[in-house]
Amino acid sequence: MSDERQAEDNLRDEQAPASRPGHDPRPVSDARLREEVSREEVENYRKQADEAHANWFSVMNNPYGKD
Fold first, then answer.
1. DSSP H helix total and E strand total for the chain
2. Is 28 buried (19+), middle (13-18) or exposed (0-12) by CB count in 10 A?
3. Which of 11, 23, 40, 54 has a Cα-to-Cα distance from 48 of 20 to 30 A?
4. DSSP letter at 31?
5. Using an 8 Å Cβ cutoff, are 17 and 23 in contact?
6. Buried b (16+ CB within 10 A) or exposed e, 37-53
């Protein structure tokens, strides 16, 4: 089974660049990100992450089913 999985992984790796022609796997510099993403978008991402984090902990601390 691991041979089958390895074959699937290899196939997926070979197909990935073709499916995303604009994808560049090299890291992006901070300066380039500052040009592409506005401060408001960054603040929105942070707000969404904070809300998701709070929601996750509300689920984790939910006493339902712990009886």
1. 3, 0
2. exposed
3. 23
4. H
5. yes
6. eeeeeeeeeeeeeeeee
DSSP reduced 3-state for 61:
coil
- Give domain status of residue 4, yes or no: no
Do the domain assignments include residue 19?
A: no
* Residue range 6-52, pLDDT digits in tens: 666 555 555 555 556 777 778 777 787 778 888 899 999 999 999 99
Q: Report the length, in residues, of the chain.
A: 67
Tell me if 36 is assigned to some domain: yes
**Predicted TM-score (pTM) of this structure:** 0.45
Q: How far apart are CA 60 and CA 45, in angstroms?
A: 22
What residues make up the domain containing 34? 29-62
In a domain, 67, yes or no: no
